[in-house]
């Protein structure tokens, strides 16, 4: 029998189903009880489609906002962003609390002088802390690399090193097959420096600090602190009454702290919900408000 005349059971079954469907459509029946098939009700699908479109529209709007934030800040080195956030976090709270406390003395000149003195000293202190922290991190990395090199290039420890690589691979994926691990280690053995880098990065969890990392960290943290701390001082330049300056400073800082917390949540948690971002913004406002209120209260109490 030629192949053109053969019909497989699957093909035969499909043709029978199509034929039966054609008969049912001609009769206008559902094939079971003789009742005419009714078209689906548009009213029953309308709300579902409307809700679906609304949810899709909200998701698209949220993705557009997230995309805008990521487009602005996404190209910046994550380490630099981390340092900037550290500087801004302290700069937006400590000088604000100090100026609020000094404002209770009723002298706007004193607020400006005291605020600037703290701002300069705080900027230097934060920058120095960032420099020392980054330098310590670089020293620790170099020390770990030297220890690992001494162990790696000692032939007595060869089996230990290979066992370490195997353990690292099993931590990455416990489902790796033995042959896969064997081939991977065999390839790494051809490049000793690559194997050493693999152990340091994935075994020790260390990454080589960037060039001039300490100086960059100091500059970024210090600049972030200065910019954040200068904001609560701005209103005192434009008003004579210290009470009015404090009120404007509070309003400016509520706005600034909220959006700082909101954007910080977006950058650090990426796809977090709008509710989470709002909570982060309100938490920043609460922290700054408590610090400023406590400073104002204690200075006022000591003065009296």
From TrEMBL:
Residues 33-47 have a biased composition (Polar residues). The keyword Transmembrane applies. InterPro entries: Ccc1_fam. The keyword Nucleotidyltransferase does not apply. Residues 1-63 are annotated as: Disordered. Keywords: Membrane, Transmembrane, Transmembrane helix. The chain crosses the membrane at residues 214-239, 245-263, 284-302. One of its GO terms (cellular component) is endomembrane system. Residues 48-63 have a biased composition (Basic and acidic residues). GO terms for biological process: intracellular manganese ion homeostasis. GO terms for molecular function: manganese ion transmembrane transporter activity. CDD domains: CCC1. It is a multi-pass membrane protein. It is found in: Endomembrane system. Residues 7-20 have a biased composition (Low complexity). Its main location: membrane. Belongs to the CCC1 family. This is Protein CCC1.
């Amino acid at each position: 029998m030629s192949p053109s005349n053969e019909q497989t059971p699957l093909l035969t079954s499909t043709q029978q189903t199509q034929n039966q469907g054609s008969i049912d459509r001609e009769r206008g029946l559902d094939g079971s009880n003789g009742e005419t098939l009714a078209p689906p009700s548009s009213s029953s699908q309308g709300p579902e489609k409307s809700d679906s479109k609304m949810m899709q529209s909200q998701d698209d709007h949220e993705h557009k906002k997230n995309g805008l934030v990521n487009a602005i800040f996404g190209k910046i080195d994550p380490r630099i962003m981390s340092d900037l956030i550290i500087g801004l976090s302290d700069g937006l709270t400590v000088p604000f609390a100090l100026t609020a406390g000094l404002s209770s003395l009723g002298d706007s000149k004193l607020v400006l002088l005291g605020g600037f003195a703290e701002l300069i000293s705080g900027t230097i202190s934060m920058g120095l802390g960032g420099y020392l922290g980054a330098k310590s991190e670089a020293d620790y990395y170099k020390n770990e690399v030297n220890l690992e090199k001494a162990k790696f290039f000692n032939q007595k420890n060869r089996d230990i090193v290979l066992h370490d690589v195997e353990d690292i691979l099993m931590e990455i994926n416990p489902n790796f097959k033995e042959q896969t691990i064997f081939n991977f280690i065999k390839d790494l053995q051809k490049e000793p420096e690559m194997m050493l880098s693999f152990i340091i990065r994935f075994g020790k969890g260390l990454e080589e600090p960037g060039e001039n990392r300490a100086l960059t960290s100091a500059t970024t943290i210090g600049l972030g602190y200065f910019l954040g701390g200068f904001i609560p001082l701005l209103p005192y330049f434009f008003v004579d009454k210290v009470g009015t300056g404090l009120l404007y400073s509070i309003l400016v800082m509520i706005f600034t702290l909220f959006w700082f917390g909101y954007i910080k949540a977006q950058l650090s948690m990426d796809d977090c919900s709008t509710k989470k971002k709002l909570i982060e913004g309100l938490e920043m406002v609460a922290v700054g408000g408590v610090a400023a209120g406590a400073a104002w209260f204690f200075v006022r109490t000591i003065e009296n």
